[in-house]
Design brief:
This protein is mainly α and 260 residues long. The protein has 10 helices and 2 strands; from the N terminus they run E-H-H-H-H-H-H-H-E-H-H-H. A two-stranded parallel ribbon has the order 1-2. Helix 1 packs antiparallel against helix 2, helix 1 packs across helix 8 and helix 6 packs antiparallel against helix 7.
């Protein structure tokens, strides 16, 4: 299977290695996101939930103030329909955070030996089926589906699925009569530069940048403390909003106030 593809271009070996390195960096970024979420996800979700609770209460107060300024009685049903509609995107983001937290916490620890096998097997399969290397992949539905299976399995660290994919790839290529494919890649220098740029972009932003925080125990503890302080600040702010609402409902104030 190692000789399935023959390349005419000079510089192809560099291109191939860069593609594999880029994919490894992408995967590392994904793993860093999981690690970050395991440590901070619950606190971040809790903080976001408190933020949207305060936003919702501010909207209720704003609605009530607007109706009071018009001399109208608040229609609670109409108010909640409007506010729930405005809060829909916040609620969606919170649900997404919770789902990501659950997925991260459910992810298994993978041993170093298994990770090495996964990396080696992925490299072997990518050299045969990566769409940027083998143009047959994108035009053949079976190969395209197999490549998708390989990428998903690789990112999920599923060695068993990758091993199954290797058997299926070999069979598919043999059935198609593509034991050897000779191709020439257009604008190889341009493609090499594009991959280099992609790698720089991935490394320059989160989640890849999380690695520098996660490697520093002191920074991790400081981050946790910062989130906890912010949660406490929003808890105090929520109490202020509740007090304003109580004052309005009891008629103690005429509800002339400036929103934060």
């Amino acid at each position: 299977m190692e000789e399935i593809i023959k390349i005419k271009n000079q510089g192809y070996a560099e291109y191939e290695e860069l593609l594999l390195e880029r994919d490894q960096i992408r995967k590392e970024a994904g793993l860093l996101k999981i690690a970050y979420t395991k440590i901070f996800g619950e606190l971040i979700a809790h903080l976001f939930e408190m933020k949207i609770t305060c936003i919702k209460k501010k909207k209720i107060l704003h609605f009530c103030q607007a109706e009071a300024n018009k001399g109208k009685t608040v229609d609670l049903d109409a108010m909640m329909v409007q506010i729930n509609r405005e809060m829909r995107e916040y609620d969606r983001k919170l649900a997404q955070m919770i789902a990501e937290n659950n997925a991260a916490n459910a992810s298994d620890h993978i041993g170093v030996e298994t990770l090495a096998k996964i990396k080696k097997l992925y490299h072997r399969l990518a050299k045969m089926l990566h769409p940027d290397i083998n143009p047959k992949t994108d035009v053949n539905p079976q190969l395209k589906q197999l490549w998708h299976m390989i990428v998903v399995s690789y990112n999920a660290n599923n060695l068993e699925e990758l091993e199954a994919a290797e058997v299926l790839v070999k069979k598919a290529l043999e059935n198609a009569g593509w034991e050897t494919i000779e191709i020439e890649i257009d604008d190889l220098p341009g493609k090499i530069q594009k991959v280099r740029d992609e790698m720089m972009t991935i490394k320059g932003k989160n989640p890849y940048q999380y690695k520098f925080l996660l490697e520093n125990e002191k920074a991790v503890e400081e981050k946790k403390e910062s989130l906890q302080r912010e949660i406490q600040e929003y808890a105090e702010y929520e109490k202020e909003l509740d007090a304003l609402m109580d004052q309005f409902l009891t008629g103690e104030v005429d509800f002339k106030w400036t929103m934060k």
